[in-house]
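Hello K.,

You asked for the raw outputs rather than the summary table, so here they are, unedited. I folded two proteins back to back in the same session to keep the settings identical. This is the first:
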Amino acid sequence: MKYNFSFYMLIFCMLAYSSSFAQQDSISHTKAVKKALDGTIIRISDTLWFRGYNPEQGYFQKANFDKGDPRFMVANENQTFKFGIGGSVKVVAFADFNGSIANNDFITSLISIPTYHYGQFRIFANQSRLNVKVVGRIRKHTIVSFIEGNFAGANNAFKLRHAYVSFLGLTVGQTWTTFMDLQASPPTIDGEGPNNQIALRHPMIRYTYYYKDKLQVAVAAEMSEVLMTEIPTEPFKVYMQPQRVPDFVAQFKYQDKFGHVQLGAILRIMNHGDSTITKKSTFVPGGGLALSGTFHLWNSAMLYYQFNGGKGIASYIQDLSLFNYDLLPTLGAKKMNTVWMYGGYLGLQQYWTKKVHSNVVYGITRLETPADDYGYFEAHIPWYYKYGQYLAINTIWNFFDFASAGIELLWGQRVNLNGEKGHAHRVNLLLQYDF
């Protein structure tokens, strides 16, 4: 018996229809696919649509300092609500030789004096991150909320990095301090970065004004921690107290084809008391300035720089943030004083190809000593930090759209007030995958 082509097509369609009807469930029943300018969108319910990441066209408005679009996201059909999950898996292996630092980060102020010449090898992945970002539209305005953490807490516990809401230029929550210039941070495998870098996160209320995408002005009130040494004995008792005044920070940034330049200013009003329960406080002012930026040297090279200085800003400086150097005792006058600290870094980035670049970074941080107590500090605290140096040389290969590998050589030095020195060397290996 002979059958024509139409008969076979009829049988095939009936079988396909009956098979698909038998296998329907609540998800596939509502599933629909459409094409859009920014790629394929799949409907997963009557109101929510899922789309894959499209690197050619940004889907989220970038808010503050987060890295941008996650790999996948969910949105409602009219695009007024968008929800994304992203992060990275970062694995670092390092070997120390000719000096060692007992930390996964290369913190030069932790270098042993005298130098311990033993070596060590470690592998860690607790700098891997997870983040959630939600972007909504209210009339013509965008509201952004962002939460990110990593596993760098005690015993690899989850640690909050960012948690903020941003709307109409107002940012409320925890994120990078306004005194920082993340755009001027040189690329390093080392999570610490140059020792004079300003890099920390605070709870804050910040307002940012943008003018024609070139000028940015921001003012903020930030809640920071004051680092000081308590003195529980006579003749001069000093105790830490909860801070009563936030830090006030201003930021001015201008960017153009050449790169960008930023000036940051901070005012601190720090307080302490003569007991842990007293209502009386002594207030000590502090503050500083930071000049930073980037500069395009030629088509494939970029210069990164930062110079800062001030009194009572140790908690903002990478190398000094582990010590109680915001306020130091002047025993003769029985009071706490601030001391000068200053330094900077320079970084040069060179792209050899579109996916391979190398970086050289040098940083130095110096801390002055209270003049009238020089003898006291020299005699009783010989480990008092005087200055530190940091050098990083690396090459990073972005071998996939979302994956990179790299190698880095680090050298650091710490010098104490009494002239004793210590140094350390490290080799870092990186494998990172962003999603």
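The second followed immediately with the same parameters:
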Amino acid sequence: MIKDNQKSLNRLHIVIDAILIVAAFVLAYEVRFHVLTRFSLFALSENERYYSLPKYAQNLYYLVPAYLIIYANCNLYKPKRGGGGRLLYWNLFKANILGLFVFATVLYAIHENDISRGLFVAFAVMNFSFGAGFRFILGRILKAIRKRGFNQKHVLIVGYSRTTEAYLDRVRQNPQWGYHIHGILDDNMEVGTMYKKAAVIGTCDDLEDVLRENSFDEIAITLGIDEYIKLARLVGICEKSGVHTKFIPDYRSVIPTVAVMEDLDGIPAINIRNVPLNNVFNSVIKRAFDLVGASVALVISMIPMLVIAIIIKSTSKGPIIFSQVRVGLHNKEFKMYKFRSMEVQSEAKEKKAWTTANDVRVTGIGRFIRKTSLDELPQLINIIKGDMSLIGPRPERPYFVEKFREEIPRYMIKHQVRPGLSGWAQVNGYRGDTSIKKRIEYDLYYIENWSLGLDVKILFLTLFKGFINKNAY
């Protein structure tokens, strides 16, 4: 059955990873001392010596088991069915960074100062590349095998609800997962009812008999939320059978995306919203990315900003920089900076006014810098101050926040992260006078699926297609 296959596959996986770590280390040695030394930048002086490969290879006695333990703790040996490839490679990347840190720490602890730093870098790059390449090939092979009906996971579904249909939709859309659905047990649907080739084969009272007469790899409990009174009994029956049981809750109307479990000293808690940036490591990485990116952008844009400032000052009365109160992280207000693109107006009007097409308040230079988003450049200062991020949901004025929080479901969730100079909604065309609901959908996707890679992707999309805003008036 699939459980035995998974154990065998994991053992093979570990052995191959160990071989790849050794291969990456040996190849890194060859590259550092026999390939790169041909170039003047990496050439060794006549008096410079380095350890032989057998001497270097002694590090593998602790390096290989340490990496395998780190890989296991980074979830690289968990079953891959239904998982996302991007998360797998991100875990592999984190594992290699952590492994490299362990490597360096051990060398420092034993006062070993003669190991090449270039070897460190070459090993990190090659080990990640080998690991990613192996997992890509293995994933392709397993998907092909499962699509042909082999290496199947045999599943029984208990309970018929909206979640049952959503689950079956995903299974049928992804034959490479290798799920074989044997049937559904439910107390409300007639026996023989079909959905996506899965039939109701009995009631929940038949569960013990069905488990006794069949051999399943997994039971998926998909009861409707109004039937949760049955849950404890059904889980007890499943646990007694020894079959792996998965509970897929019917809370999509309350928690529409991936939920994250938390252990409160033995009490399980479901976080209503998964926000990766609540993780300290992630938030530190993003803040560092913001500081470096904003500092570099500020240096590059100094001359264009100076030119814009001179034109604004010489063509209309008023300040060069326009500051406006916006709502940011944790609903805290801050002053957001922009180049002034409109005639000076009273604070009362400015708080509630929405810019429209052919707005007479917009100046000549203002129309250009709004259309090209150059008016946003002073927000690099907001980023350095910590009010904003390079990438995130766009901040709104307090008046409109109060208005939208009552009109747009889940609108206030955007304030769980720092607002951004650009964002996922903006690069997908939802800027200016566009649907607020659609904008929030994209903002929520970003908040719940944040990664440094996604930030880099949005940044590049902003650079290449995001500056011109046809909806900016």
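The first strand starts at residue 153 and ends at 158.

Happy to rerun anything if the numbers look odd on your end.

Regards,
P.
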